[in-house]
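Quick note —
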Amino acid sequence: MTNRRNMAEHFRVTSWEDLQSKLFHDTFDDRINRHRSSYIYRGVNDASYRLLTSLQRLGGPYPRLERHLLRNFRKYAHRDSAPGNSVWNWLAVAQHHGLPTRLLDWTYSPYVALHFATNELHKYDTDGVIWAMNYAEINSYLPDKLQRVIRKEQSNAFTAELLSSVCANLDDLDSIENEDFLIFLEPPSLDNRIVNQFALFSLLSNPSIVLDDWMKKHEDLYFKIIIPAELKWEIRDKLDQANITERVLFPGLAGLSEWLKRHYSSRG
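Predicted structure written out below.
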């Protein structure tokens, strides 16, 4: 489906129409003669931000703190907070509720990613960015035992159950191979927020590695779209008209309030 490149492609769009073309760049699958993308997306309001996990942003000896954070989260959380007892479901639940983890949020939807590149009004003087990662091709870099599982399932992303069949915990994952690797984990449908955001998580085998640095070694697997600051108002208004808003992506009164606050804000 996708032609391998030596270098990552970086696009700086110049209009809404140009943006539509770039969002669906390289998504035609000639094996089935359909537009079925192998990419997942992450939108960021500031193009200068690195792809740091919430665990990395914690600072200090964060790799050593990861297990303490998760252990105490499981200890004090309601017993029905995660379906089953898989550590991978607990990680997804913890990430979903704001605990620092090694997970990073992505989405299958380029428009959901575009929302997160344009949802902060105080960043409208700053370029945003969409990261697009070929998550199907990334599986070819997995250790053999993980590749066998994902191929047998004929899937491009792991569920907690699939990953648990190979790695019962973080120590198992960290010890599989000396080479750092990246997997994508689909969370359980904990609530409408995860469902509506079409969400999944990236997970590096080494919590100390920043995803940007890993990606520099695999530049054929991703591309970036720079969203110029001067286009953000137009993009935001058109996303709102298309019903890609906080009211939909964060169901509940908090999401409704965020949408209304932003929607009725003056351009200034």
